[in-house]
Amino acid sequence: MSICPKNKSSRSHRDKRRANWKMSAPALVKCSNCGELMMPHRVCKKCGSYNKKKIVEVAAE
Predict the structure, then answer these.
(1) 31 lies in a domain?
(2) Which of 12, 17, 58, 61 is such that its CA lies 20 to 30 A from the CA of 51?
């Protein structure tokens, strides 16, 4: 058995419910080592450091 609504929901009521379902821009912070924009709490893709410590060796381009 599935849920069956008693009455029809209007378009405005439906759209009000969906109003908060939206995408948000990803939070970006500057790397403390190189200054590149990166996502917080992750290793920097440019220099391979996290919390001012070298974690990953990055290949030179």
Answers:
(1) yes
(2) 61
Cβ pair 58, 48 in contact under 8 A: yes
Q: Rounded CA gap, 45 and 38, in Å?
A: 8
Contacts of 58 (CB under 8 A, 6+ apart): 45, 46, 47, 48
Residue 55 lies in a domain: yes
End-to-end CA distance of the chain: 59
> Full-prediction pTM beyond 0.85?
no
Over residues 9-43, the pLDDT tens digits come to 999 999 999 998 888 899 999 999 999 999 999 99
18 located within any domain: no
Residue 37 is which amino acid?
Answer: L
pLDDT > 70? residue 61: no
